[in-house]
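Can anyone check this?
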Amino acid sequence: MAKISCPACHIQATKVSLTNGYKYYCPYCGWNVEVARTALRSTIRKSYWMLGLAAAISLLALIGNRASWGIAAAVALAFGGLPAFWISRARHDLGRLGNVRKPAGAEAMPPASPTESQSWSLLTSLPRPRRLKLSWRGRAYALIALVGGPIALYWMTMDIREGLRLGGSDHSGAWSLAVAGAVVCFYMLRFVHARLRERRLLAEGATATGYVISQETNRYSQSIAYRFQDAGGRTFTARCADPSRSLYEGMTTPVFYDPNQPTQSIPLDCSLTKIVAQ
């Protein structure tokens, strides 16, 4: 994961771990402190619920076999150990947050974009259609989708054919493979559609400054909700996946949108396609 810097004072941000991901804050200027504090409190509440459930399961195990205190203790440790760990860790992080000063005027001016390779003035001055290329992450995903997908479909087709030839009247295995093949096709088409959409927006779309209003992270993906204004002054709010894992509450990022349909938009940092400076 890339290092996250505070968008206000550009100091490396501090990470707090949650049951469903991470949050970042700045211990120097107070950026994102309230968001991190709220997320930690939510983690503590969820962990207490899980701890109570572990206690109830242990009690049921003890009632079912009163002589087996060891089994009840093992059940309590198995189901309650992790929630207890998260409670301890979150309370420790909350204690550290208590010493951080509250930000003064943090919302008065949106901070700078985390995109370091391209300046905002350069992006707005590029002629349309803009030159594009896939990022390294985009090339890796494209290789998996366009090479791995057809190979997987070929193997599934061969297995379905063999299953129909040898299976007689029982075609349940073939149907299962057919459903799996349909799922693979769906995600391949979805990937291609998303890449074509973002290429169209980045090449021909109008530009605006987007402001991240919320962010959600888990162990495998991250998404953001962002807000921007089009050329007519209308405000739009949208949500998208953030494969860069670089955008957090309070950050700004260039947004490219369709001027005829502004609900179609993509933040530059969330795209697997990048703009080539001419």
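Reply from J.R.: I decoded it. The chain has three domains: 14-97, 120-133+206-275, 135-198.
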